[in-house]
Amino acid sequence: MKNVKKTISSVSVGTPLWACILLAVAVPALHAVTYTSIDVPGAGTSPYQGTFALSINAGGAIAGNYYDPSGVSHGFERAANSTITNFDPTGSTDTSAESINTGGVIAGWFRDTSGVYHGFVRAANTTITNLDVPSAAGTFATSINDAGTIAGWYYDASNGIHGFVRVGVSFTLFDAPGAGTAGYQGTYATAIDTAGTVTGSYIDANNVYHGFVRTAAGVTTVFDAPGAGTGAYQGTYPYSINTAATTAGAYIDSSNVYHGFMRVVAGTITTFNAPGANQGTVPSSINTAGAIAGYFFDPASAFRSFDRAVNSTITTFEDPSAGTVGGTVANSINASGDIAGSYYDSSGVVHGYLRTP
Q1: Residue 16 has what pLDDT?
Q2: 83 contact partners, CB below 8 Å, separation of at least 6
Q3: Are 209 and 202 in contact (CB under 8 A)?
Q4: Collapsing DSSP states into helix, strand and coil, what is residue 161?
């Protein structure tokens, strides 16, 4: 466990009483920021192996994946009491736990021994159910809300990409207006909120990315962040959505630099960059209050992380055990402001972390 605490230095001997009172009134006490390292038993210890914390729920439970010494990926859940359980769907050769809801239900995907991808949902009682969109050549579950509704995407026999929403055991398939139909073009659903509104991106016929939000009623709105490039693989990439249907993500400009954005449901888009960002800013998660966590690239091309508060103040941070080359990546923020992510140590080994404010 690695702890970092910010404290106010003590007042020097001889300071007048009135000054002490003034300091007590004028200077608010600084809270502690604590970093807890997370390593799944069995995780590999070679460069780029280790533990990747991907999602944190309101209660502090974390889901993600880890790479073993053979380079094989497995899923894990770290409960709020720090107990870690690793798991794989039957027949998996590569597992990723992408999202965990308040009830501890996890959605993700795995690859089987034939190289086919399937979605899965792992119930709170640890029962794992495979998810396969009918007629899909491969299925990826990317997000689950507190009602257990799952969003994701699948590819067809021609490698075209389409979005889906799964309510109960029923799938609704959809494509964003303007989505291309060639191989790997199409609609990528990345996140779903409590009301069933889905966000993600779609690739058009010119391989440009655009953002979309789709309500539970099926109404889809497409959008582009101001400044987004219009060249191939440039454009707008929404990654996360909160209970107010505010989306957060990144856009790539005409110079192929990443920038952050936040879009409220009324359509207003605010763009921003983390202080010290060199090659780009990537917001990865937004919580119910509108605080955003993500990462950026510093001048040395190492990962650094940030927390953008509701008042737009951006705080950058690194796990204290992170090396100077790989750095720290923030992947998910919950309603309490707890952040889960991963860092690379000086040997290039990956460790998960929990940052609590």
Answers
A1: 40
A2: none
A3: yes
A4: strand
Length of the chain (residues)? 357
Q: Encoding tokens for residue 125?
A: 């009682």
Alpha carbons within 13 angstroms on the beta-carbon side of residue 239 total 26
The number of helices, as runs of H, and strands, as runs of E, in the chain is 1, 29
Q: What is the band of 325 on the pLDDT scale with cuts at 50, 70, 90?
A: confident
The pLDDT value recorded for residue 31 is 60
Amino acid in the structure at residue 132: D
Report the C-alpha gap between 198 and 143 in whole angstroms: 9
Token pair for 302: 């190492």
Q: Terminus-to-terminus CA distance in the chain, angstroms?
A: 15
DSSP H or E run through 282: strand 280-286
Are 74 and 68 in contact by the 8 Å Cβ rule? The answer is yes
Find, among 98, 96, 19, the residue nearest to 57 by Cα: 98
Which residues partner with 192 through β-bridges? 198
Residue 262 CB-density burial (10 A; 0-12 exposed, 13-18 middle, 19+ buried): buried
Residue 272 has pLDDT above 50, yes or no: yes
